[in-house]
Every structure is written in structure tokens, then in C-alpha cells.
Amino acid sequence: MSKIRDFITISRIKILIATPAQPLLGTFLAASSIFDLVNIYLIYFLILYIISILYAVNVNCYYDRDIDIKYKVKLARAVDNLGKENIRVILIIETCLIMILSGYLMLVGYVIVGIFSVIGWVISTSYSAAPIRVKKRGYLSALPIIIGLFMFPYINGWLMIKLNFQVYGIIYLIGYILLNEGMNLINTAEDFDEDLSENVKTWAHVFGLKWTFKIALIFTVIGGVCCIWGLLIKLLSSQIYLYNVSFSSAFIIISSIFILKSSWDLYSIGKRDDLRKAAKENAYRMPFWFASTRYPMLLAALFILLPF
Questions:
Q1: Of 8, 19, 62, 128, which is the most exposed, with the fewest CB atoms less than 10 Å away?
Q2: Using an 8 Å Cβ cutoff, are 297 and 255 in contact?
Q3: Looking at residues 109-135, what average pLDDT do you find?
Q4: pLDDT at 70 over 90
Q5: Residue-wise burial string across 215-232, b where 16 or more C-beta atoms lie within 10 A, e elsewhere
Q6: Phi then psi dihedrals of residue 131, to 5 deg
Q7: Is the pLDDT of residue 49 over 90?
Q8: Which fold does the domain 1-165 belong to in CATH?
């Protein structure tokens, strides 16, 4: 039982709570009707996505153990308790499942989805694993997160429904990347001293903490506006009924409120004198920011599809 708890710990379950929304946002926004979602292969795709995210966080905890022991002690202890050999076995199993499911989706016609999933595995590995370890490469450090965690899931979810992208989908994608990377930057700032001690150079070191929080706020605000804009275009270009307009509009408003709340939180944190301390004290908010902005948008996208 203790091993299961340790595995849950290195799987960052609080962050994972908000992750199912990511590919589904692409899927729901690509759909023209609720009946487009009746697709057995979506189940295989979601399983593939969840395993891919588990692999990404597991491999990160594995290679970040010496950093985490300095502050995120619970993560480091979980790695020690599981044992690195056991974690390597877990990573191999996850890799095999990713390759099998990616190959299967390619065989049944979702070729690009399968290819992007394999590329996502490469990105997840190179982000954390030596000798490449992109997360310590300064300006490049954020790219694996932006591409692998925020961009590919949405694109793959969309491609499960249709191959052609529409303007509103692209606007939403740009906004989604900015919004989530903006909120994610507090996690980057949280590890400022620990990363520096291990020669890991992130955006927090490249830009400094003051400008990192300014960038976080700008990204969050602009990204939020683009997401709401994309949802509104989707709504206005869809068949209009009483219930789909009412429910989707309500959740778009709720999304806007939570985006504003997240933006205000980042603004307030960035105004603190001791930004190192502020980042550590407030990083726990990030999973809530993710969940509170993603799920109302997901529900808005779903209700747009209602045929009544």
C-alpha cells in the first residue's frame, strides 16, 4: 500500500486532476455535433494521453530527485521509497503502452495523432533526462512544456474529430498555450534556488523573478482573452438553440471569472517584495488555476454541441 501511495505522489495527482480537460477541449471544439463524440477510438486516445502524462511526471520526478530533496522533500522521499530500479521498470512499462497505443491509432487511421504522441514521448524524455535535459537550457526550457503538455494534447484531441483546423480553433489554441504557460510559470519560479544550485537554468533565471511574474500575468490575460474569443466564435458559428446558448454562455462567463481570478492572483503575487518566498507560498494555487479555468471552458464547449 505504501508503494501505491509513493507512486501516486510521483504522479503529481493534484496536477493530474485538471489534465483530462486538455485533449477533450480539442475534441469538443472540433466537433460539429454531439454525435461526433460517439467514437470508440476516443477511449483509446484518452488512455494513451493519461499514460503519456503519467510518464512525463514520473520521468521528471525520477531525474529531479536531487533537486526535490532540497524543498519538495515528499517527492524525493517517494522516489527513494519506490527505488530507482522500480521507477525505471514503471517508465519502461509506460513507454511500451504509449508505443502500442500510438501504433494502434496509426493503424486505424489516426496517423498524425500517433506520430505526435510518439514525439510527445521524446519531448517528455528530453525535457528531464540527461544528457539533453532541456529544462536546464535557459530560453529553451519552457518549450517542452508548451509543446508537449499544452499544444499536442489539444491538437491531437482536435485531430481525433477532423483534420482541418478552423480559425476559432487556432485562436483558442494560441490562447490556451499562453494561459496555461502563464499560470505554470509560478511553478518555474517556485524552484528558483533549488534549480540554480543544480545548474538548471529556467525562464525564472533568464528573465529574473520580477519579469517572470510580469510575463506570467501578460500570458494569462492575453491567453484568457483568446480562449474566450475562440469559444464565442465557436458558439456564434454553431446552430443556435435556447439551452445550448444559455448553458454555454453561463460557462463562458464562469471561465472568464476564474481567468480574471487567476490573473489577479498572479498580479498580487508579483507585487510582493520577496518573490522567492511569494512563489513558494503560492505555488499550491496552480492546480486550482488549471482546473478552475479548464473545466468551465470544457463544459462550455460541450454545451455548444447540444441540439436543443
A1: 8
A2: yes
A3: 93
A4: no
A5: bbbebbbebbbbbbebbb
A6: -90, -10
A7: yes
A8: Tetracycline Repressor; domain 2 (1.10.357)
Measured distance CA(177)–CA(220) in Å, rounded: 9
Q: Give the C-alpha separation, 162 to 39, whole Å.
A: 12
Q: Which residues pair with 137 in a beta bridge?
A: 201
What are the pLDDT digits (tens) for 273-283?
Answer: 999 999 999 99
Q: From CA 224, how far away is CA 172, in angstroms rounded?
A: 9
199: left (phi over 0), alpha (psi -120 to 50) or beta: left
Q: Which helix (H) or strand (E) holds 247?
A: helix 242-270
How many whole angstroms separate alpha carbon 279 and alpha carbon 191?
8
Amino acid at 105: L
Confirm whether pTM is higher than 0.85.
yes
pLDDT in tens, 190-228: 888 888 887 888 999 999 999 999 999 999 999 999 999
The count of other CB atoms within 10 Å of the CB of residue 132 is 14
CB under 8 A, 24+ apart: contacts of 97-103? 97/48, 97/51, 98/48, 98/51, 98/52, 98/55, 101/44, 101/47, 101/48, 101/51, 102/48
Going from N- to C-terminal start, the domains of the chain cover 1-165, 166-308
